[in-house]
Fold each of these.
Amino acid sequence: MKKIAFLLLLTAQISFGNAPFWSKTGHRVIGEIAQEELSGKAKRAIFKLLDGQSLASVSNFADEIKADRKYKEFSAWHYVNIPPGKDYKDIEPGKYGDLVVGVQKCLDIIQNEDNPKEDRVFYLKMLVHLIGDLHQPMHVGRVEDKGGNDIQLQWFGRGTNLHRVWDSNMIDDYGMSFTELSSSLPKLDKKEIKDIQQGTLLDWVKESQLIADRLYDSVEVGQKLSYQYSYIWWATVETQLQKGGLRLARMLNGIFK
Ligand SMILES: [Zn+2]
C-alpha cells in the first residue's frame, strides 16, 4: 500500500514538473499590469464578477484546475502549435481546440450578460491566464518538440528544457515578487501603450510565433545555460509580460464598456 502511495506521489510530481506553464509570477505580473490599465467601468464590472479578487490573484486558476480531470478538455487551450513559416489560418485546430479557440470562447461567454455569473467568472479567469500564455513565446512553438518541452537543456547545472526556461527558470531566478517585478518594468507613455495594444489576436499569435523561431535558434540541445542567457533575453521577457498585461486590459475594456 505504502509503495503504491509513493509511486502515485512520484508520478504526480513528475507530471507536475513537466506541466507547461508560465511561472505563477509571470501570470500574476500580467494580471497586475492589466488591472492598472482597466477603465473605471471594466474595473467595477470585474470587481463584481470576481467578488473583489484581483486579476493577478485569479491568473493561475487555469493551471490549477489541470490537477482536476474534470477540466481535462481545457488543457489544449494553453498553447497553439504552428509549423515554421505557416500561419494560424493554415492549421486545423485539434479536437479540444487551442489557444485561439479558447480565447474566442472566453470572449463569447463573458460578453453575453445573459450567461450565468458562474460561467462568466470561469471564462474570465481562463481568459486572464490564456492571454498570459499567448505571450510566453514557447506556447506558440512547434508540435514536434511540444513547444520546446522536448529540447533538453541545463539551467545552472539542473536539468530543464527550452519551454521551462521561458516559463519559469528565468523569471523565478530573477527573484522578484510579482508586485516588485510589475512595478520595476520600464515606464511607457500613452502612445507606447496604445501601439502595444493594437492588432488582432492573430497578429499577437504571429508575433509570439516569430519570437519562438528565434528562441529555437538561441540554444543547442543539451546546452548549459546560466547568467548569459538571461542577460541576452531578459528584456524580451519584460516586454512580453508588459504586452500581455496591456493587451489583456484592452480586451477587458472592450468587453465591459
Ligand atoms: Zn497555462
Amino acid sequence: MKKGELVLLISRENSYLTNVRNEKMHTQDGIFNLGELLNKNFGDEIKTHLNKKFTIAKPNITDILEKRVKRLPQVITPKDIGLIISYTGIGPGSLVVDAGTGSGFLAIFLANSIKPGRVVTYEKDKRFLKVAKENIRASGLSKFIKLKKKDITKGIDEKNVDVVTLDMKDAEKVVKHAYNALKPGGYLVVYSPYIEQVISVTKEVEKKNFFDIKTVENIVREWQVEKHTRPKTVGLMHTGFLTFARKVG
Ligand SMILES: C[S@@+](CC[C@H](N)C(=O)[O-])C[C@H]1O[C@@H](n2cnc3c(N)ncnc32)[C@H](O)[C@@H]1O
C-alpha cells in the first residue's frame, strides 16, 4: 500500500476512512498505527492497540461522500441521485451541466458515473464555491468536474450536453437555456423540494420541444428485520420531486 492512499478500515461495528501515513489515529475502537498499512494490501487485517481487528478495503464514492465531504444543508440524497443516473442513462463519457453546485454532492456523484466525461457545475454564491472546491478536491474527481462561478439564469456556455441537472431556486428561469444547451435526446432534470416549483418548471418545459415529461417522487422505506419485522417508524419522509424532460430537437 502506498503513502497517501485512501483506505476504508471496516469491522462489523464500525468503519474509518483514512490515508496511509506514518501517524497514529485515535478512534473509539483504540489507536491505529497507520504506518503498518505500508506493508499491507487490500483484504489484509490491521489491529488497534485494544486488539480490535479491522479489514482494509478500498473505499467507494459513497464512503468518500459520507465521510469526507462537508455537507451544507440540502444536498441531494443518494436515493434521488440513483434515479437521475438510471432514468437519464448517463455513463462514461457523458457531458453534464449542473446548477447550483451547493456542497458539490450531486456533481461529485455524477462525475463518478460519467468519468472520463465532464460535469460542469455552476454556482453563484462565493461561500458555497469555497466548500464545493474543497469537497471536489477531497473526492479525488477534480479532473472530471469544472466548477464555474456564474449565475446560470444568465445562460449556459456548453453545447451538445447530455443532461442538465438543476437543484436551485428559480429553476424555471433556466429551462430555455437548458433547452439550447442540450443535444437532441438529452435530458433536463429538475429537483424541487416543493410542488409549486414543479408546476412552474413544468409550465416552462411545455413551451419547448421536450417529450417524455414526468415528475416522480422516490420514497424509500427502511425495514427493521428482527423478531418482529416491520417498517422502521422513523425515516426521511420527504426530500424532493424530480422532474424529467427529454429534448426532441
Ligand atoms: C440546494 S443547493 C444545491 C445542492 C447540490 N445539488 C448538492 O447536492 O450539494 C442550491 C445551490 O444553488 C445555488 N444557486 C441558486 N441560484 C443559482 C443560480 N442562479 N446560478 C448558480 N447557482 C445558483 C445556491 O447558491 C446554492 O448553493
Amino acid sequence: MQTLAMIAQKGGTGKTTLALSLAVAAEAAGRSVLVIDLDPQASACRWGDRRTAEAPAVMDAQPARLAAALAKAAQAGVDLAIVDTPARVEQAAAEAAKVADLVLIPCKPSILDLETLRATAELVQGRSKRPPLVVLNAVPAQGTRHEQAAEAITGMGLAVCPVHVGQRVAFEYAAQAGQSVTEYEPDGRAASDVRRLYDAICQIVGMSKKERAQ
Ligand SMILES: Nc1ncnc2c1ncn2[C@@H]1O[C@H](COP(=O)(O)OP(=O)(O)OP(=O)(O)O)[C@@H](O)[C@H]1O
Ligand SMILES: [Mg+2]
C-alpha cells in the first residue's frame, strides 16, 4: 500500500480538493483507495456523505490512531491511502508526514500561501520518507504567476511538482455534488489536470498507474 499525505499549514490551499480528486482518479485506474480525514472540520467525510458512488471509501480518524487505521487498511487490501490533514494543527500534520510515502503540499501561487510554505516544510522534513512535493494549485489561466511561484519555491530548496492544477470552477461544482472533476466534467481542463497530476505522482512513488485490468 502506498500512502500520500496532503499537508499545508495554511488553510484553503486545496488539500481536501486534491485528496479527493486523486482518490477518484486512482479508483478510476482500478486501485482500491481509502481517504483518511484527520480534519475535525470533516470536509472529506462530508463529501463522502454527499456522494452516491460507494468508492472511494472515506473515514475519519484521530491523528494518534492514524498508524493503526493504515495498518488495518493495508490488511484489508487497500492499495492507496490518502491522508487529508487540517491546517494549523501540527500534530495531525506530523503524524501524517511520518506515515506517508509522499507528502504533497498544495500551494496557491499567491504570496499568502508562499509565506507559509517554509513552516510546512519544516514540519514535514525529517519526518517523511521522501522530500515533500509542492503542488501549485488554483493557478490562473492567464499570466505567469505560477512560474514566479515555482521559482520562489525551488529557491526555498523545495521540489515543485511538474504538473500544476489550474483555477477552475468545476472543482467547486464537483465538490458540491459529491463528485470529482473527472466525474463532473470528464473532458474538462480540471479533469485533465487531475489525471496528469495522478500520473506524475504514480511515477514519483513508483506505482503503476493501473492496478487491475479495466
Ligand atoms: N484548483 C482549484 N480551482 C478552483 N477552486 C479550487 C481549486 N482548488 C481548491 N479550490 C477551492 O478552494 C477552496 C478551498 O479548497 P480546499 O477545501 O480543498 O482547501 P483545504 O486546503 O483543504 O482547506 P482547509 O485548510 O480549510 O482544510 C474550496 O472552495 C475549493 O473548492
Ligand atoms: Mg481541507
